[in-house]
Amino acid sequence: MVRHPIAIGVALLLAAVFAVHPSTSASAAAPVVQTTEGPVQGLSANGMNQFLGVPYATPPVGPLRWQPPKPHAAWTQPLAATSFGKTCAQITELGVFAGPVSVNEDCLFLNVFTPAGAKKLPVLVWIHGGGLFDGESNDYDASALVKGGPAVLVTINYRLGLLGYLAHPALDAEGHDFGNYGLMDQQEALRWVHRNIAAFGGDPGNVTVGGQSAGATSTAAVMISPASAGLLHRAIFESGPLLTVAPLALAESRGTAFATAAGCGPDAACLRALSVPKILSLQGTAAANGPYVTGLIVDGTVLPIPGDTAWSTGQFNHMPIMNGGVKDEGGFSTSINELFFGPLSPEQYTEIVTKTYSGPAGPGNGPPNYKPGTAESVLAKYPLSAYPNPSAAWIAVGSDANVCRHPTLNNNASKFVPLYAYEFADRQAPWYFPPLSFAHGAAHTIDIQFLFPDWHGGPLGASHKLTAQEQTLSRLLVIAWTNFMYTGNPNRTGDKPWPRYTAGSAVYLTQNVPAPSQMPAANFVAAHNCAFWDTVLIY
After folding, report:
1. pLDDT value of position 336
2. What is the DSSP string of 415-440?
3. Contact 217, 242 (CB under 8 A)
4. What is the mean pLDDT of residues 219-236?
5. Does the structure show a pLDDT above 50 at 13?
6. For the residues 75-81, what does the mean pLDDT come to?
7. Is the pLDDT confidence value at 125 over 50?
8. Core-most of 127, 210, 213, 504, by most CB within 10 Å?
9. Beta bridge mates, 156
10. 440 near 331, Cβ under 8 Å?
11. pLDDT digits over 360-393, tens only?
């Protein structure tokens, strides 16, 4: 299908609807900033000042492995902050998220991007996605958000996989916060921002935390955690509302099994002496996680309650929320599956639905369980005869099951704080994968390139450019995101074109070409068969 560029008059009208902020001048001089730890010297490139690879915590190595992060020691000579720091240890290559396979534990670095001459600008701390077991801060071009705001943007690394999320009775009994080490890293980065961002021209009293996929669930966990109070003021969830979280008993059971498989049993010192390659070999492979990975854990302190309880009871740090996803979330995992294993056959479709919706249903495939007959109900609701091929059917199942969790968060959290809901629906947007046997649609991750230009898509990806219409949509979304950073309202002021989501006016903003439009929540629920999924999903 050929798409024609949007008319200039319409583009100008839409840009005017979302308020635009004044520009900030740039400088080519190598910038130096004094932080509380010591001076850092960055570089000027791509119209921004960039400070790359700044350590925000002591390396979590040796006896500090599986310990809460500690502040970094001070230095006196200028630190060369001109290249990204090392990526955290990872082995599973989750398609477009994956950084290179890494064995680095010394990886707690952040990057600051700011307009030259910035003064008290709003700050976005961006948490990368990747399932909490892969990904890196290096992959996000901050230029559109930094210059479009103007704003200050911070990207961070945090511990991943078994090094970042592990509960084990011996470790948990040591008298420190435990389990969610990656989440604690994110909070330590926020404390660094609170101490230092004013020196970079940011406002420590106006910090937005956001992320996509696992970055969104991390943002929600940061928002729920009592330890985050005062560190953030707005939250953006892109394709990842946090609801269910692994219970501590399940996490400790898996941690114990991991320690046994590693030959350590109950010996914490043995666990800390393991090589990173040994840990990664038990964590998983390039294609999949192993049986010991849990992700976020309800540890009782850092993350005291699961998301569904937090949103329904108001037990979270109150602030404006932007929450949304993409129309065809399942296109991402289906693309990865085909890359590794080839197109789904009819028999494999039945098998994967049966495996997914039979037995354990909780985080990491732990309790609670789906009720008997759930798989059969899903197969009846999404019969192969209704789709061009088994992959298209599986995309529909995965997409609806994912996005039908959003109304639960929206309906609950909007009782306590301003909330703005959306759905990204450009099904023709560039896809980073090679040609596949199905139409990917508006797949999980496909919206990232509209906020972070030419998002490279990881080692499996290929670069494709946005069309003229999509470039216009990108500019409008950048304006809305930075408006939200300024005021907690994507319109900056008022209720148009993006209305606040309330019980009396439950409306989503559909993000699509040629222009965003409003969609009643009832239409969203009907389009994704949420009445069916509300009888199936376990929150």
Report:
1. 86
2. TTS-EEEEEE--TTS--SSPP-SS--
3. yes
4. 98
5. no
6. 97
7. yes
8. 127
9. 110, 127
10. yes
11. 887 767 778 899 999 999 999 999 999 999 999 9
Task: Give yes or no for a contact between 211 and 262, defined as CB atoms under 8 angstroms apart.
Answer: no
Residue 1 has pLDDT above 50, yes or no: no
Beta-strand pair 321-326/419-424? parallel
376: Cα within 13 Å, side-chain hemisphere: 3
Q: DSSP code of 336?
A: H
Give the rounded distance of the alpha carbon of 171 from its chain centre.
Answer: 27
- Beta-bridged to residue 479, according to DSSP, are none
Enumerate the H helices of 149-290 as residue ranges.
Answer: 161-164, 169-172, 181-196, 214-224, 248-261, 268-273, 276-283
The conformational region for residue 472 under phi > 0 = left, psi -120 to 50 = alpha, else beta, is alpha
- In order, the DSSP letters of 251-316 are HHHHHHHHHHHTT-TT-HHHHHHS-HHHHHHHHB-SS-B-TT---SEE-SSSS-S-HHHHHHHT-S
Q: Using only C-alpha atoms, what is the Rg of the chain?
A: 22
CATH number for the region 8-247+293-329+398-533 comes to 3.40.50.1820
Mean pLDDT of 272-296: 93
Residue with tokens 């999924």: 533
The half-sphere exposure of 458 on its side-chain side, counting CA atoms within 13 A, is 25
CA triplet 529, 323, 145: central angle to 5 degrees?
Answer: 135
Cα–Cα dist 506/36, whole Å: 45
Neighbours of 493 (CB within 10 A): 10
Q: Taking Cα atoms as reference points, which of 266, 252, 268, 320 lies closest to residue 487?
A: 320
HSE toward the beta carbon, residue 475, CA cutoff 13 A:
18
Q: What is the mean pLDDT of residues 154-177?
A: 98
Give residue limits of the domains in the chain: 8-247+293-329+398-533
Helix (H, G, I), strand (E, B) or coil at 340: helix
Find tokens 């693309």 and name the residue: 335
Residue 17's pLDDT band (cuts 50, 70, 90): very low
Q: What is the C-alpha to C-alpha distance for residues 516 and 263, in angstroms, rounded to an integer? A: 55
Rounded Cα–Cα distance for residues 203 and 119 (Å): 8
Mean per-residue pLDDT over the chain, rounded: 91
Mean pLDDT of 311-331: 97
The predicted-structure confidence for 456-475, as pLDDT tens digits, reads as follows 655 555 567 899 999 999 99
First to last CA, the chain: 39
Q: Is 41 helix (H, G, I), strand (E, B) or coil?
A: strand
Q: How far apart are CA 160 and CA 274, in angstroms?
A: 16
Q: Which residue has the tokens 């991390």?
A: 218
pTM exceeds 0.90 for this model: yes
Alpha helices in 374-528 (DSSP H): 374-381, 390-403, 406-413, 468-487, 521-527
Q: Checking phi first, is residue 161 left (phi over 0); if not, alpha (psi -120 to 50) or beta?
A: left
